[in-house]
Design brief:
The complex is a heterodimer of chains A (about 240) and B (about 290). Chain A is α/β, with parallel strands linked by helices and about 240 residues long. Chain A contains nine helices and ten strands. In chain A, β9 and β10 (about 215-220) form a beta hairpin. Classes of the chains: A alpha/beta (about 240), B mainly alpha (about 290).
Chain lengths: ~240, ~290
Amino acid sequence: MTTVLRALDIHKAFGEREVLRGVDVTLDRHEVVALIGASGSGKSTLLRCLNLLEPIDDGQIFLDDEDISDPRVDANRVRARFGAVFQSYNLFPHLSVLDNVTLASRVVHRMPRREAEARAMALLERIGLADLAKQHPDRLSGGQQQRAAIVRAIATDPEILLLDEITSALDPELVGEVLELVRQLAVDGATILMATHEMAFARDVAHRVVFLDAGTIVEQGPPSEVLVAPREQRTREFLARFTA
Amino acid sequence: MTDPAPAARPVREVSALELERRAFRRRRSQQSVLVAIASSIAVAAVVWVTVINTPAWSDVQRAFFNPEVALAALPRVWDGFLLNLQVLGLSVVTVGVFALLLAVLRTLRGPVFFPVRVIVAAYTDIFRGLPFIIVLFLFGFGLPTLTGTRIPPIVLGTLCVTLTYSAYVAEVIRAGIEAVHPSQRLAARALGLGYVQTLRRVVLPQALRKMTPPLMNDFVSMQKDVGLISILGAVDAVRAAQIVTAQTYNFTPYVVAGILFILLAIPTIRLTDWYTARLREREQAGAIV
């Protein structure tokens, strides 16, 4: 396996509050990594640092051996190589679902509208949202919105998908349809780093689980080890809250 | 999956309870109509007794609502009104461009733009505080004096309206930009859009929707204030009305000019209501209580 993303000793503080205290994380091509940890452990911040939505305070991030944490690097070009999905969907309410999905293709990748829409429709067709392509996001259910947001993120064939607790804002009965889509992407060979509280899903789909606590990685390894027989006491305590 | 699946429902008999409720609602709405008619008649009667049925009313009518004077004044007032419309039309464009520039300059981040932000902030403070009539005196009379050339009133008028209204509109735009949730910027930047692309494709379109009501408000206000360019010596609707009034010793021409301005404003006001209602409908499903 080839390493796509390599983050070394990432530090990030908001004011006095240290959120990341030296995090090392790597991601291989076609690998699915689940990032687990309590709220406030730094999962979201780490994801945002990786695609340069947050400037880091120290450390290095390599994407295909290019140091993207170098301030001389064009951050827009780097971000276009990632796909990001957020907890609260963040679809653009003034655009139809189709325009949401094609925006980056048209504006960033300069693809002709016709071509971008054909590709987007094919994707929407595949996940059963083609009928809603002309609708504005507010007309969709939470699950539909989040699936549309995932399609928006993958429409430009990003090298890495960053999923930030994408089911946390959903009603329980809508979680399944979103996770099913992620599972499909994983099967198709996507490279995914996902912050999640869905332990069962992480166990099924992830190749590796990374447990983050108070801004440091406490433990990582295959889900069969980290989630089933964790070595660290803190991991055990964290997981106990899910099985209780 | 919650995809809508409209299945043909069997026709259902409405329950007796619901039929009774509907009858009650119908009775109640009929009652409201009757009450509205009665109260309208009462108010009309009071107005007639206290205002119209008084000896002074015919004097008022003669001085302000004289049909003959109105008819005689209308062509001249209308010609002047066309000048107001020209200034208004030009100003809409110049204010739009200048205000957007000011607003964007003020939202720029980074230490390099510190002086720009301060200058723009000072500008909006000054021109929102400065009475429009002083702007007209300072620039409308000051500028030709300074340059020693004759500047057409239409240019001076547009300049003054632009200087003042850009300050107001820039603040509306800035508030609109800041009202767009930061997560929208985040999502756009995550897709690889640059600062300007994000502003143009994601932030401004949403900001514009939020801005429409206050913006239209400023526009209505601007429609009236173009009447102040009469100070510059331009023969606009107000000036024309003043001239006819001086000739006839009758105030009706002012009323004529006033009605023209009101007629200009009403479509804008209705349009605003219609537009905001349509936006709400398009972006929000469901009823709002």
